[in-house]
Amino acid sequence: MKKIGFVGFGEVNTPVDVIIRKCSLAKEQLEAEGLELVSVFPVADDYEEKDITKAVDALAKEPFDALILCIAGWIPTHAVIKVAEHYRHLPVVLWGLCGWYEDDGRLVTTADQAGTTGLRKTLADLGYRFKYVYDIIGKPSGAKKVAQYCRAAIAASELRHAKAGMMGYRDMNLYGTLFDGASLKKVIGPEIESFEMLEVAQRYEKFTDAEKEEVINKYMSQWKFLKEPNREAQMRAAGYYLAVRDICRERGYESISLKDVDGMKKLLGYPPAPIFMLLSDVDHLSTVPENDALGEITQLMLRHLTGQCAAYLEFYEFFEDRVLAGVPDFVPAEIVDGEVTVMPAAFGELSEGILNVSKVKPGELTMCRLAYADGEYYLHMVKGTGVAPRRWEECGWTQPAPQLPGLEVILEDVEDFADKVACQHYFIAYGDHTGALRDLCSILGIKII
């Protein structure tokens, strides 16, 4: 678990037991939210700056990904900055605690917000990346907001060294799936490493029938087949899965995209849906087809923030209050409602493959996509409610056409969403993660629309 720095401040003339009591409670609340802290308090503005030295020395003993400046009472600005300046490169939370009411109704305050209001503009003027949180007497603690920002800081730190894999590049000559490697590294951090389909084909030849049979018997046998599967199709899926899996393991990829239409389907004659399913369900990789580079980065952002796989959906129809979002190939088991259900199927001139026709879990969700325009990154995100879709099919499938996996996502403003939509692929995480995404993007310097 990544750690967070925590320093509790209070002015030298405030009773020290009060500052300790307030900081101890704040620390306990953060730990209850799942944070592991490197903590030091109380820190006062003593003339000889012994407390400041103590705090700096204590924090230097362990690394951490963000710093919480917990203001438990009035504190001169310099005392806080002399500690914080050692960690200007990290995201910071300025957290002001609050006073309390005595039994006779008297409000007692240690002037916490005198301390935070003296600091807020100072932090901004000095160029800190920070979030300002203040408590209100009688209301829930700001610990949840503080913890949310700290988790976003941890995600940002992890993204700095994350890696995604991509077989080939620019499937179907699409524009919306391209990326600029240098700016991506500078702003967000991950590397997208590409490898050739030839490497997959060469590795495929090295796996024995027994190794492929093991994949079929151990994993693919758990799928519910609506029709008797073609054994050769299963063997090819298992072999290509093993080839891509080994590349991902060797190179530490957390997300993977394959050249789909102009690659696996056209040149190897095999739709890669079951390969993606196995990579997601067995190896817990985030998966998206068609060389969707910024789609992979969106997945990494959501994954590190929420722990979910960040499955992709693409749009088929817009309605007045909702969008029909589905996939023509696969969904991870993590988002399946019920059994993972598959069937042999062919689309247009493509050869028969294994198509996922599972139902997708309904519920509140956050749908988003990272995009790049005019030298800047931005995240388009919306909150919606996914419901089971009406009966529908994509024209071109062998009849009777399959009901593809999908959701009707009810949105507050479909027209506004359509005006800002950035690609055919968007990514979902169940629950409302808009606040956490805002925190992450503020840390990374990414605009949200």
Structural overview:
This protein is elongated. The protein is α/β, with parallel strands linked by helices. Helix 5 crosses helix 14. It contains 14 helices and 21 strands. It folds into 2 domains: 3-159, Rossmann fold (3-Layer(aba) Sandwich), CATH 3.40.50; 163-448, L-fucose Isomerase, Chain A, domain 2, CATH 3.40.275.10.
Q: Could you name the CATH class of the largest domain? A: Alpha Beta
- How many beta-strand segments? 21
CATH superfamily of the largest domain: L-fucose Isomerase, Chain A, domain 2
CATH architecture descriptor name of the largest domain: 3-Layer(aba) Sandwich
As a percent range, the share of strand residues is 15-25%
Number of domains: 2
- Average pLDDT confidence is 95
Key attributes of the depicted protein:
L-fucose Isomerase, Chain A, domain 2; 2 domains; Rossmann fold; five-stranded parallel beta sheet; single chain; six-stranded antiparallel beta barrel; 21 strands; 36% helix; 449 residues; alpha/beta
